[in-house]
């Protein structure tokens, strides 16, 4: 007898976000029933903003999605905001129940506050998992959680982190790496203040070598880092801002007043 072959139907993931226009009992059930009738599976659902829900769904073809969109547009209880292949921000919004704030003018700048450290760590971990060169800058005042978040994200991304310059436990200024540290899977962390104010030319030669590696580099205080180097903010793929609260102003007055720093100026694990 010929061997029986079972074909597994492949489905594509989509992101659906809608705004509730008329909230009433059973609304989510109606949406779920509609998806079921169209043979579209729900992967995850969550509130992503006040009055909005986001869903990751699985559909077998684009025609299913067009039918879904057509039906949803006839409903007066909801308004479709997004129906597309999911982006990283969509996946994280459903996972955490809130959207990452993005600068309206500078699309590569993302903003977080301290009570969103879980979301920040998840976001950076996803960036760290991507292959090839990536230069990420992170701004924030002392002891807001920058280094803590970078290290936690490295762990989540299964990356080995290396401090090229740092004030984590004691001031670190590396002038060379050992052979196995030149690894594209490593994550290199540079403190822009320490490198700019304390380092010698050997350190900067090392920084330039690391910048040429097809690996992820994270620079704390990127604005200070670019002041006296050949690098510019345009070289950064992402800029992350971390504040204690949304209204906090990130200022570098202390940097302008002092040319040299002690460890106590910028010490602490979560600098």
From TrEMBL:
Residues 16-86 form the ACT domain. InterPro entries: ACT-like_dom_sf, ACT_dom, DUF3388, UCP021288_ACT. It holds the Pfam family DUF3388. Coiled coil: none annotated. PROSITE patterns: ACT. This is Uncharacterized protein DUF3388.
